[in-house]
Amino acid sequence: MADEPNEATRKLEQVRGVTWEWREDAPDNAKEQPGIGVIAQEVEQVFPELVVTDEQGRKKVNYVGLIGPLIEAVKELDQRLAAVEQRIAHLEQRR
Length: 95
What we know:
The chain has helices spanning 7-12, 28-31, 40-46, 67-94, and strands spanning 17-19, 36-38, 51-53, 59-61. The chain is of the alpha+beta class. The protein has one domain (7-94).
């Protein structure tokens, strides 16, 4: 998935998790969902293949498609954490 180290993490840093209240003119089927998610325009900048625009110009995010990048970001962060823990252990041994 990620071509360069920390690519998934770097991309996901550009997407915010947000909450909102639905406007009165929002489609009824949209109001059935909780007002929590991501901003489609932000996702579109880094994962354009995960956003579609309907006939009314509303953007929709393929949330399932975010699972792969999220998994890769967790792996990247776990590797970074392991490296930091290893450095700390090395420094403590030098005391």
